[in-house]
Amino acid sequence: MDFGQAYSPDNLRFLMEGLGMTLRLAFVAIILSFIVGCLLGVIRYAKMPVASKLIGLLVETIRNLPLLLLIFFARFGLPELGIKLSPFWAAIVALSVFEAAMISEIVRSGLKSVEKGTIEAARASGLTYIQTLRHIVLPIGLRRMVPPIVSQFISLLKDTSLAVIVSLAELTHNANIVMGQDIAIVLPTLMLVAAIYFTVNYVLSIIARRLESRPT
Fold first, then answer.
1. Per-domain residue ranges for the chain?
2. Please, are residues 68 and 165 in contact by the beta-carbon 8 Å criterion?
3. To the nearest 10°, the Cα dihedral for 157, 162, 164, 166?
4. I want to staple 132 with a disulfide (CB 3.0 to 4.6 A). Which of 31, 106, 122, 209 is the partner?
5. d(CA 70, CA 166)
């Protein structure tokens, strides 16, 4: 093992560039999936005619597909439909769609966890269904769903490594290039990459645990 060559300034800089791409990819996907996932979750909870059933079918379909397949489809399938995406945006689309389906289920479950007595009390006080949803159900449900949503974002961050299949220059992709220099630096490079992923995800795990321990 050659730690000196593996951790040379040039290699470290190249890996940090990959980490930067990974974090940008995760950040954009988190924002988009959270917005779309919350919207879909609320619609499913509200049981809107037709829309809820169609969204439910779509969500269940996406949740049961491999993320790798969605990335392949976004990068190589969409161009056949006239939609050409760069590796970055193909990964964004695939990750956002997949994670939005997961988050929608978390949101729906979080809203359903609000006690019926609380909802009935709000309705009895004169609030309409929409007002009850906005002022009672959503605030309570959102506090309860924060920990599982953060945990889902941790999974998203790890899943960004799958973007290596579309040659996106994220951390795993750059690590593969570094390891291709010499077999003696493969293990040191893998150790460093593992440490980077662990550190980032461990920080998010701590946040999730602290949020989970907060009273609702």
1. 3-213
2. yes
3. -120
4. 122
5. 12
pLDDT of residue 184: 87
**Residue 111 one-letter amino acid:** L
The domain defined by 3-213 folds into MetI-like fold (1.10.3720)
At 16-37, the pLDDT tens digits run 999 999 999 999 999 999 999 9
Cβ atoms of 43 and 52 closer than 8 Å = yes
Can you tell me which residue has the tokens 């973007």?
163
Mean pLDDT of 82-107: 94
Q: To which residue do tokens 């964004």 refer?
A: 92
Q: Give CA–CA dist 94/73, Å, rounded.
A: 8
List b or e across 36-66, with b for residues whose CB sees 16 or more CB atoms inside 10 angstroms.
bbbebbbbbbeeeeeebeebbeebeebeeee
Using one digit for the tens of pLDDT, what is the confidence trace for 47-75?
A: 777 888 899 899 999 999 999 999 999 99
How far apart are the C-alpha atoms of 112 and 50, rounded to whole Å?
Answer: 20
Written as six digits, the tokens of 128 are 């309409």
